[in-house]
Write a structure and sequence with these properties.
Blueprint: H1 7-18, E1 21-22, H2 27-47, E2 52-53, H3 74-85, E3 88-89, H4 91-114, E4 119-120
Parallel strand pairs: 1-4, 2-3
């Protein structure tokens, strides 16, 4: 499957956030989570009769928070949602996905540090259900 995550930017985010490295195997579960989140948001938008996936369609939602730099590939996210669901994608959806990636990365950093490691691995991944 094509990656919706900008790997270099996620690695930089983790390095800047905690001075940790990232193993290559971390990105597959992260990417799968983003794909699943896009599909779930598209289904939600369809259920309520909208033709555009908006930020509020995601189960992890932060009110009006803007992100400095997207950690997902905007064109690939839009293509996935358009091709599979025939829907448009609002820019706020990209912000929500970036917040999701940041949340996952922060939790993974915590998990790695608990294990006294400086490398984030796939076993550190956990899908967020809330912001806490």
């Amino acid at each position: 499957m094509e990656s919706l995550v900008v790997i270099s930017k996620v690695k930089k985010f983790i390095k800047d956030e905690a001075d940790c490295n990232t193993s290559a195997n971390f990105f597959e579960p992260l990417n799968q989570d983003i794909v699943r989140a896009c599909k779930d948001a598209a289904v939600h938008a369809q259920k309520i009769g909208r033709k555009t996936v908006m930020g509020k369609d995601f189960n992890l939602y932060v009110e009006t928070q803007e992100v400095a730099e997207a950690l997902v590939v905007t064109s690939k996210v839009k293509k996935l949602i358009k091709d599979e669901f025939g829907l448009s994608t609002a820019s706020a959806a990209i912000d929500q996905l970036t917040i999701r990636v940041q949340t996952i990365c922060r939790k993974a950093i915590e998990n790695a540090k608990k294990d006294k490691r400086k490398t984030i691995m796939d076993r550190d991944f956990s899908a967020p259900t809330t912001l806490s």
